[in-house]
Amino acid sequence: MAEKNERMLDKALAEAMIRKSSEYLDFNRNVRESARVLEDSLSAFITKGGEDLSTNRLLNQTKDVIALSNNPLHTFHMLQNIRHYDDATFIHCLNVAIICHSFGKWLKLPGKDLDVLTLAGILHDVGKMWIPEEIIKKPGSLTDEEYSVIKMHPTRGYHILEPMQVDVRIKNVALMHHERKDGSGYPSGLRGDEIDEFARIVAIIDNYDAMTSARIYRGALCPFEVIEVLEEEGDTKFDTKYMSAFLTWVTESYVGSNVILSDGRKGRIIRNNSCKSLPVVETEDGEVDLSKEKDLLIKSIPDC
Ligand SMILES: [Fe+2]
């Protein structure tokens, strides 16, 4: 019990420090501004019935946020903090776009493709604009009928973007980001290579972001819990090559981070392992290779 209280205090202190920092205050202001611009642009586009959506403006706003921090890990941390009191769809879209940009850069995508992937991240859930707010924000579980309405958002999104002069991959991402390589996804049950390459990337990032964010029915999961789940189960549903690259990139981003282990010890990640969810951690007792320990894992990252 005392240990649990101590952990909660550590987490609260870390959150308070992040919220007080000028980097976070700037970041928070810019994220909110970007979310507002995104929301305004999309609403204007819809009410005007198909006039051009200012994709340049959306891209520039997102790039402004990305430029606030050189370290994608900081971006993750600060977005996680914003989430504690604002988990809107727009913040999710912006977060997916930022992760798309950082991951795409790590993949060494050419500039034009990087912009396309970033915009695809912003616009992947544009079809949700058509879903009644009471369903999107419903606190309890959804009825079958409500869930079938939610599942219409990829097709809706594609129809919004279809007449626009934007890269076809952005349209395909809106349509295909819930398709899964084993055919279990929607709306069309596409398999493997039938799914657009960028939609396969955004599907991974969308899923990761949803799992690491707080939900009404559960708190945010520790990124390493999510990495473990994705390592075990990700291969059946997601592109093998991109999933492996994504997990490498995420875990590399966390090298140097402070962590708390499941036995309560504090430490710092010093390097990765082939088993991505079990890195090597430096503790006051020396180096601990989690891949060689039984029942010992990363319980939390106090700074996020
Ligand atoms: Fe979606």
Description:
- The chain is an alpha+beta fold.
- It has a domain at 15-220: Orthogonal Bundle (Hypothetical protein af1432), CATH 1.10.3210.
- It has helices at 2-20, 22-47, 55-67, 72-83, 89-106, 111-123, 133-136, 144-150, 153-161, 168-176, 197-212, 223-237, 240-253, and strands at residues 258-261, 266-271, 280-283, 286-289, 298-300.
- Strands 4-3-2-1-5 form a five-stranded antiparallel β-sheet, with helices on one face.
- The radius of gyration is 20 Å and the shape is globular.
- Fe (ii) ion binds at residues 125, 153, 177-178.
Quick summary:
Helices cover 58% and strands 7% of the residues. It has 304 residues and is α+β, with helices and mostly antiparallel strands. The longest helix is centred in the first third of the chain and has 26 residues, at 22-47.
Features:
single chain; 304 residues; alpha+beta; Hypothetical protein af1432; five-stranded antiparallel beta sheet; 13 helices; 7% strand; binds fe (ii) ion
